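so the lab meeting is tmrw and i was supposed to have these ready like two days ago... anyway. pasting both below. for each one the top line is the aa sequence and the line under it is the structure tokens. i havent really looked at them closely yet so no promises
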Amino acid sequence: MDGAAGESAGQTPMEALRDRLSGAREARLRDAVLRIAGDVHCIVADLQASPAELRAVLDFLTDVGHATDQRRQEWVLLADVLGLSSAVEEIAAPDVPGGTPQTLAGPFYRADAPEMPLGADLSRDGRGVPLRVAGQVLALDGGPVAGALVEVWHANAEGFYENQEPDRQPEFNLRGRFRADAAGRFHFRTIRPRGYALPEDGPVGRLMNRLGLRLERPAHLHFRLTAPGFRPLVTHVFDRDDPAIGRDALFGVKPGLLASFCPEAGGFAVETRFVLCPEDQA
């Protein structure tokens, strides 16, 4: 008799799997596998999935793996467009009432961007419509967070980040680090970013197109803010007038992250503020 001898002949495959995993050494891994497998078994039963449909799902997952390499992470893209990345981020760093919401950092963040004086210009190629940015970093009690480190990065006027186009954009274009002053204020110059589309030429993009979903991201600035005693904040500032503001492919748009990019002489200006949460609320 083999190892399945103890299983009842009337068991479903899911029930048998649950019995087989009852002695697994890693309880959390076992519970995760059983939960995922159980949900998939329910989906198969509810939809009355055919062998051909299962084969199509397996072929899709195989294609995702083949499309992933050192330059492209199709698995991350899949998690992103299904909302899984944002859901896990919200569990890891839940929003705190009164605090600025957390968002995904995305794949284009660089920790080695240079520190620059307040008022400096992030545009190293001078291409694009000027944008003046001013902001303030506050604590939950409304007090300023003096000396907070403010990191910023964003796409250019064509929707591309500097590290996407190393041969077309100067090193560290449209990214830098600033120190807030004693009042928690900071300001810098840059250019108005453009929204962009996520890659649609791979299996994930083709799936989204079949579903009628567009992989658009509205125009935005990325920020990462850190200060002693406070929880690190990674967030966005979105252009509220961008036509894609209601269909962000990464589910990052939240009411508290919308800002007006207001016309002014020679370009645009945006003002924002960030509210940091104490470390003990991380």
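ok protien two:
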Amino acid sequence: MLFSSYVFIFAFLPVTLIGFYILKAYKFYTSAKVFLALASLFFYGYFKVEYIFILAFSTITNYFLASWILRKDHGEGYKLLCLGITFNLILLGVFKYTDFFLENFNLFSKLINLDFNIPLPHILLPLGISFFTFQKIAFLVDCYKKVNIDELSKKKKIDFIDFCLFVSFFPQLIAGPIVHHKEMMPQFHSLLNKNNSLVNWELMAKGLFIFSIGFFKKIFIADNFAVWANAGFKVVQDGSFLNIFEAWVTSLSYTFQLYFDFSGYCDMAIGLALFFGITLPSNFNSPYKALNIADFWRRWHITLGRFLKDYLYIPLGGNRAGKIINLRNLFIVAFVSGVWHGSGWGFVIWGILHALAMVSHRIYSFYIDGKKFLNSKIYKFLAWFITFNFINITWIFFRSENLTGAINLLKSMFGIVWVELPHKFYKAPDVLKTIGGNDKTIGFFIVAFILCLVFKNSIDKTQNLKINYKSAIFTAFLIFVALTTLIYAPYVEFIYFNF
């Protein structure tokens, strides 16, 4: 059940909202939490019923581990923490990486003439397992360190219903953001407080506003770019090549598809949470405006970067143990980010490339004070141009289903292979024929660049929203366009559902 589907918008969401607020109105606060948690499980199980059992097993196991860690002393707690982290990583590894490891093991065995040829089990990959695994690991670490859990530290007790809701809250269950206990539980307690009003209409209005923006981004922008990106990648993955214009349009189409797809999801998740009076942390902040790779990662998937910084980079020593160790830590964090996204050599290469970029930028910052040049428009443009094109090129490995496709697309982009251009190469329908491009494609690129580089992001707009007839008309227009587009648009899942 996608956020951008009719069944979600006209069935699941209204029923969940009505049920939750009826229970709250009659002061059945515990029942309201249970109802919301069960609705979230239904939402998750709607994709595949089997997912519920995996999520439930993980949740119950982590609940008991966290409860024991909270009550134990430092030494015993540390053993339980190691057990908990190991359990979560094994669970993630089994479901996400088994086929990848076995496939490469079989390949290696052939190289040394053993040829084990172990059958690939093709284990079901539960949606969102990468997200809720990291969220639970963070919670276990916080319980051990007694940080970010002030109320739990005093009580030495974790409420099971609260924990289930913290883990399964449907707006952030499938693709984040990766939230902390301290961000969510105080809000749930405050929300279900008899002294508060039944409905916060301001949050409702802001939620509808940002939801409409995300809905429009996903259906009208991202899914249109998906058509050209998918067509181009299919050609190169099948072993053929594109002309240079088609190749660049293919790579840029995916670059913008991913941007508006993930940005749209983040907006819709924040909007849905606001419908229930809950504020989720920002997870996306105009990353294509970044002037360097470090700035990009501070803007893209913010809560993943926060997790890796707090629970990997800093424990490894951060920047406190000298320059060499600092560079090592940066490389490890960026590499882990790549592998976290998926099981394939494309993700490994993508992670390594970003790791090398992070290391290069840090070395640059060691010896050159870039701030002296920041007032220069030429410097800013060059910095943005290099950063954006690096990101665009590395997304190719992120998207391509095989390395052959990625290499073929790069060869096409940089003219290493020559594909004859049509006679009227200056006309979009002719030059982009293989990927189904036309004049509309050029228009979408112009709009996408303007939206990414000129406009304020949706979080800023929502925070400063003036609730009046203009904002109401704008919201209604976006929803109308998205809903009508959805009638004939192909079914396209959010990209981050695959991670």
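from a quick look at the 2nd one: The mean pLDDT is 88. The chain is about 70% helix and 0% strand. will dig more after coffe
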